[in-house]
From TrEMBL:
GO BP term (any one): septin ring assembly
Protein name as catalogued: Cell division protein ZapA
Role summary: Activator of cell division through the inhibition of FtsZ GTPase activity, therefore promoting FtsZ assembly into bundles of protofilaments necessary for the formation of the division Z ring. It is recruited early at mid-cell but it is not essential for cell division.
KW S-adenosyl-L-methionine (keyword) present: no
GO CC annotations, alphabetized: cell division site; cell septum; cytosol
Residue ranges that the Swiss-Prot or TrEMBL entry lists as coiled coil: 60-87
Assembly and oligomerization: Homodimer. Interacts with FtsZ.
Cited InterPro entries: Bac_CellDiv_Activator, Cell_div_ZapA-like, Cell_div_ZapA-like_sf
Localisation per UniProt entry: Cytoplasm
A Pfam match: ZapA
Length: 92
């Protein structure tokens, strides 16, 4: 959750330093950047011939794909909760 304050952190992603500024907590920013770094290193290790830009794009594609899958799963769960509530309301 955002605390309203702007946080400024210098982080390392795939060997490069970035200054990230945002209203999310320091913990959140670090988690995000660590996940990006981890995914880039994973993709880079499997594809040693790719340059950093291509690794970054593939990382973005992979992470957005994961996000969309989770979003779809969340929607399915919300629909299931709604069905259960409606069923319980009809029986109760």
């Amino acid at each position: 959750m955002s605390n309203g304050q702007r946080n400024r952190l210098t982080v390392d992603i795939y060997g490069y330093q970035y200054t990230i500024v945002g209203t999310e907590s320091e913990y959140h920013i670090r988690r995000v950047t660590e996940m990006v770094d981890e995914k880039m290193r994973e993709i880079g290790a499997r594809n040693a011939s790719l340059d950093t830009q291509k690794i970054a794009v593939l990382t973005a594609v992979n992470m957005v794909s994961d996000y969309l899958k989770l979003e779809e799963e969340l929607q399915e769960m919300k629909m299931e909760v709604s069905r259960v509530k409606n069923r319980n309301a009809a029986n109760g």
